[in-house]
Fold this protein.
Amino acid sequence: MIVFDLHCDQGHRFEGWFGSSNDFDNQMERGLIDCPECGSKSIGKAPMAPAVGTKGNKRESRHPAKEAQLSNAPMPPEVEKAIRQLANAQAKALESSKWVGDKFAEEARSQHYGEKDETPIHGKATRKEAEELAAEGISVAPILFPIAEPDQLN
């Protein structure tokens, strides 16, 4: 079974359970899906983040992975497209970037002052650390979308 968060053209949100994504598409084509509040047949999928399950040999976290909504109201298609493009751009940039964890400020300074070769890095910094780096003229930018630390991946 697959669960989709759906919305109608009147802004009502509801869940739909389907045997598969194809099952949803087939029911839409046949006009079998309507809003339970107003009866509208103009239905769309609400944006959702993908569900990422844990490996069977990993301890389950206190908050099992589940699909999370990006918005609590229907998102205009152009906004959804822009968000997905930003997320994809971030993911691509991080592919060539080294995770330095809590040592981000230290590593950024070492590179800036020529103690280490400059390479793309990402990691954790407090707001104060980021402000201090920026005041020193060191380029910093926030990661817009959450990422999993390498040691926390399955």
The chain has a mean pLDDT of 79.
